[in-house]
Design goal:
Length: about 210
Amino acid sequence: MISDATIEQESRYNEDIVEKRFKSLRLVPERLDRQGPRSRPEFLVSDSSGPLLTCEVKTIFSGGFFADRNAHASTEDPALLNTGVFSTGIDFGRIRDNLRDAERKYRCLIEDRPSLQALPLLVVFFFDPFADFFDLYPSRMEEFPEVSGIARVVSDHAIRQVAEKMSLNEIKARIEAGSMRGLPASSKEFLLVQNECAINPLPDYFVEMCIRCD
């Protein structure tokens, strides 16, 4: 099984990644989940003009549970090791469950602070490799009108774009030499899917700072 300590540690680590990403965009993230007795999204994100959006961070640790193995489809579950070959089908259930919970927290925030009711809600996901169906999730999220968009943090997007245009021989030579010469700097960015059905769309200028899914 996946230990509670692992879940807590990894979740906090991912929240820190998102907080740093906002700061790198010259935005100001304020922790909301530590204010008051009720559940709230992790962050209220502001710019120089004031509040810009709210953000909930979700980590999905498992792509399913194998009752016959008493193990999760997860790289974090030691019980899965050495149990043989397995497969998991595409299942959006965990993403939907997390979006429902994000909306629940968002509603609590709006009830407590009605002045924020026009702010969009961004949900940033982190996935275990066996649970990662982000790229397949539809952009029409009719079931979740309060979710303005979903995102994930991707590393070195510009480097990968350049590498895709290289020949295999050039890539091999660079790997052997350990050379990054002429390549873009290492980076982390938000890969964004906007909800076409959102009540409160994300601000255009924030969208422009993200990588958009085609």
